Amino acid sequence: MMLRRLFFAFAMLFSASAVAQQTKFDRPGQTVKANVMPKGSLQVEAGVDLNEKYYLGNVRYGLFDGFELSTNIQDMSYMVGDMEFSDPHWSIGGKFNIFEGEGTVSQISLYDVVGLPLFGDGNVWENRLGVALTSQLGETSYLAGNVHWSMIEAQKSSIGYSLQFGTQFSRKGWGLYAEHFGQYYEFNNLYTFGGLGLTYSFGDKVQADIGYVAELEEFSETSSAQIQLGLSVRLF
């Protein structure tokens, strides 16, 4: 009887740590999670889009308790007719934890990202301000979401949202996530997307992911269906 209780307690702890493992990464997908990097911790999250020659590099650092700084470099190469354009951007941002439930069952954070143009064909800056929520569902699953407001070149504004459901089968091993996100440009046009993917955790510090993202509504002549690969590493 005692052995059975010990096994049950260990299983619950094991499952809870598996959920925590997946929610501490902002990859995969578009959903910024509420988790904030611990003070002094450094994490690198990188991704590549196999369809549109797109790559993303994200570095997150816990500056002090409840606050992290992040920097991001992204590049997208795209075609217009027979011409290829490059649109690299660099951004710097911060995330501040304003609420954390007992046992990190739920968290709420504010975040702000300022994007600046780099050398390339793109020449715009963007400011994105949002709030993120992450909540644990049972012992193995979570729900994360965010709502944000963006301003591009002080001219074009938009409101966006993202929802993600994920489940982790074990602390080391496979997990599954599904995502829905959209952007409402200039309070007129709503563009929505859906995604589905797998994650694989190599322990507490490394996670890989593969996902598929597609438009739910067509708004261009070209297909934006994407296959994405990612890797997240906690350095210290």
Automatic annotation (TrEMBL):
Keywords: Signal. Residues 1-20 form the signal peptide. This is Outer membrane protein beta-barrel domain-containing protein.
